[in-house]
Amino acid sequence: MAEITKNTTIGEALRINPGIAPVLMEIGMHCLGCPSAQGETLEEAAMVHGLDADVLMEKIAAV
Question: With contact defined as beta carbons under 8 Å apart, do 4 and 17 qualify?
C-alpha cells in the first residue's frame, strides 16, 4: 500500500485509504469530492482549515 504523507493530495489519500474520510470530515474537510480536493495536498488543506498538519497526519496514521 502506498504511504500517505503531507504531500499526498486529498483525492489520492482517499484512494489509498478510504477509511480516512471520517477523520477528514471530523476536522471540517467536508468537500472531499470537490475539484480542489484532487489537487490540494493534506498539508495545504490543513493550513486552509487552521490545523496543524502533523496532528492531521497522526490522526490519519491511526486509521
Answer: yes
Q: Look at residues 49, 62, 47 and name the one whose alpha carbon lies nearest to residue 4.
A: 62
3-state secondary structure of 41: strand
Strand partners, 9: 41
* Residue 37 identity (one-letter amino acid): A
Q: What is the pLDDT of residues 5-43, one digit of tens each?
A: 999 999 999 999 999 999 998 888 777 777 777 889 999
Distance spanning both ends of the chain, measured CA to CA? 14
pTM, to two decimals: 0.85
Alpha helices, DSSP H, located in the chain: 10-16, 21-26, 35-39, 42-48, 53-61
Burial of 1 (0-12, 13-18, 19+ CB in 10 A): exposed
